Every structure is written in structure tokens, then in C-alpha cells.
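FIELD: query
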Amino acid sequence: MKQLILILIALVFVLPAAAQTIYKVVDEDGNVTYTDQKPSDDAEPMDLPELNVLEDNSEPPPVIPESSTEEREPLQLRIVSPENEENIRGTANRLSVNLESNIEIPPTALIVFYIDGEAQDPVQSLSATFEEIPRGTHTLRAELQTPSGRVLAETETITVYMRQASRQHPPPR
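FIELD: result
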């Protein structure tokens, strides 16, 4: 255990010394060259900022089979029901939504519905039913996402009107 600690302490002091020193050289014509070889005895090493490294953890978009006779369409997702500005009556405050896509949805993809801008629990189906949607005007949209949350496609936002019957608002006759 003591040897391991000594080795770790030695590495802490050795690793920074092993970092590459870079020199900037400007010749008489103004050409700039960067080198790791000391160009002259009076040359000063450059003070370089730390590197920023970003890792790409996103998943690639779903593979769309290529067709030899036709161009590939961009991935499209749309709400087929309810329709935009539809009055929804007699559903006991349930809102059923159905989507349509121009390609088969990958099995790992998630559909996230947004009701009044608020994300609902993701589903893996092109249809969903939401309970206890109050009477009134609501906006609705959906996104097709990878498990990591990258958006592959989204619908346009539509408006629906929940018109549930009550004593103050009886059903139309």
C-alpha cells in the first residue's frame, strides 16, 4: 500500500512535466510557425489555454432504408386526431391523441406529448390517452426523441377545446 501511494505521488509531479512545450516562431517575413523544438536559447514557451473536450453522447438518427427509385423524405411526424381547433365533447375529460409518421418508428424511440407546454410521460406508441384534462382551451404537440432526449422530429402545435357538459354548460340539444 505504501508503494502504491509513493507511485501516485510521483505521478502527480511527473505528469505535468511531461506536458508538451510549444514555441511560436515568427520569421523575418512575418510567417508564423509553431514547434515543440526550442528554436533558440532565448525562446520562451507559449502559455496555452486548457483544451475543452466535448463528448458526443447523442445517438444517431434512425436509419431510413434507401430506395433506389425515389428520394428519401425527411422524417415527418403529425397529429392526425384531434384536428386543430376541434371541439371535444363527452369524453369525461379524456383526450385521445393519434400521430402519423412517414417512416417506421425505431423501437427505442420515445414520443413525448406536450399539453399546454408541459411534457407528459414518454410513450413508445403513436397514440396516447390523457386523463383529467380540464374544460377549456389547450395546446398540444408531440416530439419523437431518442432515449437520450435528442429530438428527431416534432409535430406542429394544435389547439383543442375541451367542452365537457356540466350544470352550467349542459350538452347541446
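FIELD: remark
The helical segments are 2-17.
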